[in-house]
């Protein structure tokens, strides 16, 4: 909330001194944001933690988006105007844009605010960018209002946007149809007005559109398995390496466990002892032999389980394939708990698991054997063709592909405890045309779908309705 009146700095004869003063607010905010980062990082959740987070956000992102942005009349605008030495930059840019529009659409010759060709080009570009940014800001404010305030906010946003658009159209039509400047070109001006309010919207709504849809994807294999330990033990031997081809039943690792071996010998001794007792008492004392027979059955079950536990120490490949992840040779002697991974084996062709939102799913309407193009985040210059194999008809909120969520630095936001997203995603499996060494398991990237051709208006109406339904449902 602090504010300093620095208008006296405009009396400095050196413009670089004026720029230092104009930038003061921003670099002071940067220092505040830097301090807030450390406070936020080294404090536990609470009031101070939240205050530091909001201070960091306000003094960094908000400053970049608004204060230093030259398209709005804040510090960034005055810094740019002073730097290029064009006073009243926004007004002159608007005059240049209006002069060019009058000459192109109405054939009116008006004197430009400046004579230099380079200056006119810059002012025209600045005027177009400023107009586009204001339109974007208008839509953004309306969307934020609708999102925060529900149905009332949606109605207020519609009224807010409509009021701004109607006001701009009334001003334009009043100039085209009634202003003295357009009197010599009245028929052309009326035609431009009709095209603006009727022809241009209809042309935009009827324009064909087939936008490409880009969705997050992660590389998988046609068949893959992570081999884990069934029993705890120390690693005594490793039989595979990354990149090695492996057959079903090949040894992956041998875990040593003296207790397991001792348990097998003890169980076998108990079985042999029980058998000898039965043989000795079978004729002389049948009752004792019968009781011992029941004990023998228990001993045999214990021995069978002990042998299974000992056999589980020898971990073998469940199918033929290629090892893409494995424990290392220097892990020999390390103790592994039950369930720890030993190796990952894959076979078959490379695939991409793609997640589509409801809007994206409706836009592309994926079907089996449809074409998809995949780019890896490690090598975005190369594109792999793919064929859709399966499409899950129902959306799921629980995201199994952790590499596509914010937990791994990607874009899908999920609850860190449940891995569930705010909205459902549809999973599409794509078979990729790639060699065995051209991709890596778990590699993330982007899948490109080619959308169905439809009028732009239909797409816009669908997006507005979907946004409205989401607001009303929330």
By DSSP (H or I, 4+ residues per run), the number of helices equals 11
Q: Low-confidence parts, pLDDT < 50 over ≥5 residues? A: none
Classify the secondary structure makeup into a structural class: alpha+beta
Arithmetic mean of pLDDT: 83
Biggest sheet strand line-up? 2-9-13-11-10-14
Task: Give the number of DSSP strands.
Answer: 15
The helical percent reads: 40-55%
The major sheet is characterized as:
6 strands, antiparallel, barrel
Shape summary: elongated
The topology string of helices and strands comes to: HHHHHHHEEEEEHHEEEEHEEEEEEH
Residue share in β-strands? 15-25%
Rg from C-alpha positions? 36 Å
End-to-end separation in angstroms reads 33 Å
Write the layout of secondary structure elements.
Elements: H1 15-22, H2 24-41, H3 47-67, H4 75-84, H5 89-106, H6 117-178, H7 186-206, E1 208-209, E2 212-228, E3 233-238, E4 245-246, E5 251-256, H8 258-281, H9 286-312, E6 314-316, E7 321-326, E8 335-336, E9 341-356, H10 358-364, E10 371-376, E11 383-391, E12 396-398, E13 420-432, E14 444-450, E15 454-455, H11 456-473
Antiparallel strand pairs: 1-15, 2-9, 2-14, 3-5, 3-8, 4-7, 5-6, 7-9, 9-13, 10-11, 10-14, 11-13, 12-13
Helix pairs in contact: 1-4, 2-3, 5-6, 6-7, 8-9
Fold and architecture overview:
There is one protein chain. Helix 5 crosses helix 6 (117-178). Strand 10 (371-376) and strand 11 (383-391) form a beta hairpin. The protein has 474 residues and is of the alpha+beta class. Helices cover 49% and strands 21% of the residues.
Question: What descriptive keywords fit this protein?
Answer:
alpha+beta, 15 strands, 474 residues
């Amino acid at each position: 909330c602090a504010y300093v009146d620095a208008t006296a700095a405009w009396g400095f004869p050196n413009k670089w001194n004026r720029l230092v003063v104009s930038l003061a607010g921003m670099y002071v905010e940067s220092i505040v944001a830097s301090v807030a980062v450390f406070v936020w990082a080294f404090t536990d959740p609470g009031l101070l933690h939240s205050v530091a987070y909001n201070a960091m956000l306000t003094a960094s992102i908000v400053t970049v988006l608004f204060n230093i942005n030259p398209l709005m009349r804040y510090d960034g605008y005055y810094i740019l105007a002073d730097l290029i030495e064009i006073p009243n930059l926004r007004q002159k840019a608007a005059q240049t844009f209006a002069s060019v529009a009058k000459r192109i659409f109405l054939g009116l010759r008006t004197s430009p605010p400046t004579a230099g060709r380079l200056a006119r080009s810059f002012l025209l570009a600045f005027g177009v960018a400023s107009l586009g940014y204001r339109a974007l800001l208008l839509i953004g404010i309306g969307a934020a209002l609708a999102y925060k305030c529900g149905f009332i906010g949606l109605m207020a946003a519609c009224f807010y946007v409509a009021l701004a658009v109607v006001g701009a159209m009334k001003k334009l039509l009043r100039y085209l149809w009634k202003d003295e400047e357009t009197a010599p070109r009245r028929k052309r001006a009326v035609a431009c007005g009709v095209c603006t309010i009727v022809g241009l919207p209809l042309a935009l709504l009827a324009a064909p559109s087939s936008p490409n849809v880009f969705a997050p994807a992660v590389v998988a294999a046609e068949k893959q398995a992570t081999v884990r330990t069934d029993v705890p033990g120390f690693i005594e031997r490793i039989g595979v390496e990354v990149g090695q081809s492996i057959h079903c039943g090949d040894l992956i690792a041998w875990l040593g466990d003296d207790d397991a071996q001792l348990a097998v010998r003890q169980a076998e001794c108990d079985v042999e002892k029980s058998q000898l007792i039965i043989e000795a008492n079978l004729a002389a004392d049948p009752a004792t032999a019968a009781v011992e027979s029941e004990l023998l059955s228990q001993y045999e079950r214990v021995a069978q389980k002990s042998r299974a536990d000992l056999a589980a120490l020898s971990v073998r490949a469940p199918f033929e394939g290629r090892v893409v992840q494995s424990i290392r040779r220097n892990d020999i002697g390390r103790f592994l708990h039950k369930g720890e991974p030993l190796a990952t084996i894959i076979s078959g062709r490379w695939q991409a698991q793609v997640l589509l939102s409801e809007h994206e799913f409706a836009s592309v309407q994926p079907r089996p054997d449809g074409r998809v193009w995949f780019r890896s985040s490690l090598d975005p210059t190369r594109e792999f063709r793919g064929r859709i194999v399966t499409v899950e008809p129902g959306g799921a909120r629980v995201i199994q592909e952790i590499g596509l969520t914010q937990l791994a630095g990607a874009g899908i936001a999920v609850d860190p405890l449940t891995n569930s997203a705010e909205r459902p995603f549809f999973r599409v499996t794509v078979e990729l045309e790639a060699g065995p060494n051209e991709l890596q398991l778990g590699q993330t990237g982007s899948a490109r779908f080619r959308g169905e051709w439809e009028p732009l208006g239909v797409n816009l109406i669908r997006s507005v309705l979907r946004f409205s339904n989401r607001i009303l449902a929330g």
